Amino acid sequence: MIDTSPTPSRRPEGLRRPRTIGAGLRIGITSGLACLLSAGLVPTIFSSTASAAPMDKKPSQAARLAGITATGGGYAGWAMRQQPTVRSNSTMAAATTPAGVPGIDVASYQGNVNWSNWYANGKRWAYTKATEGTSYTNPYFSQQYTGSYKVGMIRGAYHFARPDNGTGAAQAKYFVAHGGGWSGDGKTLPGALDIEDNYTGGGRCWGNTDAQNVAWVKSFLAEYKRLTGRDAVIYSNISFWKDCLGNTTAFSSTSPFWLAYWSSKRPSSYPGGWTYDTFWQYSGTGSTDLDVFNGTPTRLKVLATGTDPNAASNADPDGDGLTNAQESKYGTNPDSKDTDRDGLSDKAEVTGTKIMHYGVVTTNPLKKDTDGDGLSDKTELTGILIKNYGTVRPNPRAKDSDGDGLSDYTEVKTGFPVWTAKRYVTYASPNVKDTDHDGYSDATERSLHLSPRRKDTDKDGYSDKTERTGILLPRYGTVKPNPLRKDSDGDGWGDRTELTTAVTVRVKGRSAYKAYSSPNRKDSDRDGVSDVAERKRGTDPVKKDTDRDGVRDKKDHHPLNPKRR
Fold this sequence. Notes:
Blueprint (H helix, E strand, L loop, with lengths): L22 H17 L21 H5 L18 H10 L7 E6 L8 H6 L4 E8 L3 E2 L3 H10 L3 E7 L7 H13 L11 E3 L15 H19 L4 E5 H7 L12 E4 L18 E5 L5 E5 L3 H9 L3 H6 L9 H7 L15 H6 L1 E3 L3 E3 L15 H6 L1 E3 L3 E3 L15 H7 L1 E3 L5 E3 L15 H6 L16 H6 L1 E3 L3 E3 L15 H6 L2 E3 L7 E3 L15 H7 L28
Parallel strand pairs: 1-2, 2-4, 4-5, 5-6, 6-7, 7-8
Antiparallel strand pairs: 1-9, 2-3, 8-9, 10-11, 12-13, 14-15, 16-17, 18-19
Helix pairs in contact: 6-7
């Protein structure tokens, strides 16, 4: 059911003064039907809920007082005409027009209608009686239905229900075949079923139980929808719905309600589970029933077309939290929660995910890898585990999240070849330029084959930065050990040992002192004697002539005694 009304106001029930159908017309209809029946051209149709009654059954005295003088003369609101209080309310109601889109409903008793006049008086829609039972058609239907259309009104047709004269489905077929169909031209309302009091004197409820009448209405509505694709409007009054259909709520979620309630105010409550009326027949004492559509002209058009642009744009068929309008904006598939099938819902991608360092980051729901860095958006947002470091979440909108010159993919997937004695590959955080905070950027460390995760790549006790910057060696100068080797010169003495473990040099006749060797050379002083040998001899590894006697340590048999050579 298309919701065509805003929050409704309230109002009561009333009556009208119909123009009677001439005897000639009545005789023509009934005699014609009799001929067809006798010829076997019209099948006998039985109610699914009661025995079929002939269409020539006489109107009751009450119906005659309400203007129905012949079979087929039922009209929307005739039952209201019988109630003096309602007639009084209707007269007062006619003096004002409720908020909404004004309209009228007509039947054969109006004859040829001056539609131009009604349009000039502000009426913008009309319902015309088309049929009754399975044999009656309104002889003025063409002029009334087409005439309203030609002056620019939105028009619809209604069927007067005869639960005593055939199944609901049979009457729906007859209705559709004789003007009650629907088209999506924006000018045609869905057909209406007028279900109200019996005017033939066979009991107010057409001789049926509540359940039988409910079944009859279900049969009519189901067949009408099958034939037209639309849910028919239901016209009725409050007391009939309660007394003859048991106040059923079976139709409130599908069929718009056309309330017969002649008054200047809507009722305080509605029957059948409806909470508002879509149409309201508020007066019927004049020459024509007065009605109002409970909404705007735009909403009336929605009911006529059967499509609601707003509802469609606000719908969320895939249930991902994005409306059709939003999906159209982003270019995503409204029937798929995850358009690019990357494991992230479209909504999550367009609303964003909060990640450390970058705040709320949105991704492209049409691409699995928004930044094209080789890492999917889901991978970057859910995180990448770096062994012995933790989980990192790069920015899925930037190939180089930390701006260090290395792509995220390089830092977490390709890795850093580290050329220590035992080579290996390690990885760095794509979110910080200097993962190990040693003063060297990851990019620099990668170019030097150092580990971006260790301040001291070779684990020799000196940071990479210290070794590359240099260490002052007393009486020698600044040395720069290899940060990739514990024993840079391969002399068997580790860099730290050479720089921190001194050899005590005792030259005869002089004060002893401490000497160190360079970690970069096996023979620091290049005298032909290795640092290891000099340390064992007790000579200074950074001086060629320890005792300064003019003979180099290599040739001096007593390198610690300046008086002996």
